[in-house]
Amino acid sequence: MTEKSIVFFDIDGTLLDHDKKLPQTAKKAIVSLKEQGHEVAIATGRAPFMFVDLREELEIDTFVSYNGQYVVLNGEVLFKNPLDQQALKSLTEYAVSNDDPIVYMDHEDMKANVAHHDYIVESFDSLKIDHFPSHDPLYHQEREIYQSLLFLKDKEETKYEDLYKKFDFIRWHPMSVDVIPAGGSKAIGIEKITRELKIAKENQYAFGDGLNDIEMLSQIPNSVAMGNGHEKVKEAARYVTKDVGEDGILHGLKLVGLLK
């Protein structure tokens, strides 16, 4: 058997295609990786409760969620990096004054500070998942929140970036940005896992397509951008594979030499 490697996969636009379906070629490729003794993990901006079915289908129990803020290795929590509570309280007050709704997310659930908003509906509809945030404006108080979603139009987050240096704002939808701890990224979560497993850099691989994958793909030598990925993501990666809907995962794994 070849030397053991670890492969990290983003979910949306990487493992899941444009219809939020897992291509059979991707599933078979992951089975093949495991049969060869390689570690397979997920690295996503999603909450843990948003991809339980996918983890069960692929039998994956190691993952980086919330863009690196909640990391699990072999089913056990390895690393947590919650949002600063005081800064989040201040951000909430400012968002309310701007009529910009927020969703608060911990490892178990998510709640919105408004009962209804079209931007929230539109953003979550695009994910095509069974989860939708219910209303609880106090959910962020006295609990660890790993990520928030701020709902506002493109470029409007700049006013928040100037005021809240403890947070990074990463756009994932035309109507929404992720709010994570400043400097937090999938790359940091990945480093926690690879260090614990003692897997050398040259044996680390990652696949992604979105702006929140840039740090991950820049850090990992054997990085692969999906053909459908953002141009900046392709620039950050060592390799570029085919579109997710054109067997991009299988093609990429062959490209880097993990599968024949």
From TrEMBL:
**Which Pfam families does the record match to this protein?**
Hydrolase_3 (PF08282)
InterPro entries attached to this UniProt entry: Cof, HAD-like_sf, HAD-SF_hydro_IIB, HAD_sf
The UniProt entry's GO CC annotations, sorted and at most eight, read: cytosol
The record lists the membrane-crossing segments as: none
Q: Name one GO molecular function term.
A: magnesium ion binding
Top-level taxon: Bacteria
Q: What is this protein called?
A: Phosphatase
* Species this protein is from: Halalkalibacter okhensis
